[in-house]
Amino acid sequence: MPSLTIYEKPTCTTCREVHKVLTESGVDFSAVNYYVEPLSKSKLKELLTKMGMPAAALLRQKEEIYKKLKLSEKKLTEEQVLDYMIKYPDLIQRPIAEKGAKAILARPAEKIKELL
After folding, report:
1. Domain 4-115 class in CATH
2. Of 43, 34, 30, which Cα lies nearest the Cα of 2?
3. Which of 52, 76, 88, 112 gives a 20 to 30 Å CA spacing to 82?
4. Active-site residue, 12 included
5. Does the predicted model carry a pTM greater than 0.90?
6. Which residues contact 83 (CB under 8 A, 6 or more apart)?
7. Could you tell me the residue ranges of all domains in the chain?
8. Which of 2, 3, 12, 49 is catalytic?
């Protein structure tokens, strides 16, 4: 089983770039399309803990749904941010790379090298 997991949206340009870097480096990895296999709230919390960031830092603020929900105007708790990200996966920055006890937001794609 690969020790590196990428949580992604396959149509995302940065996600495809990370795939290319890993493939060209000969790295064995697994990819999880979180639109097909949604992240659980506990898994999202675990990834955030491994990244050392609050949920709000993982929000995609330029997404249409972010604007539509007027999230910038709301004072949200950590739990509420997580609930929004679970309900609307477009709100999650991507790709997230996880290896053992560490996870990173692989933006830009070259950041993936931090886990190799």
Report:
1. alpha beta
2. 30
3. 112
4. yes
5. yes
6. 41
7. 4-115
8. 12
